[in-house]
Amino acid sequence: MTTSEPTAPVDAVAAAVGEVFARVFDQLAAWRTPVEELIARATIGGEVRPAELDQAVAELVIPRLVEPDALLVGAGFIADGEIVRGREVHFAWWLGPLDDNPVLGSTDGPTRLDLSTRGYTEYLRDFRALEWYRIPATTRHAHVTGPFVDHLCTCDYILTLTMPVHGAGGERMVGVVGADVAVRRLERELLARFLEVETPLALVNADGRVVVSTEPALQVGQLADATAATSVACPGTPFRIVVDPVASAR
Question: CA 194, CA 174: separation in Å to the nearest integer?
Answer without folding.
Answer: 39
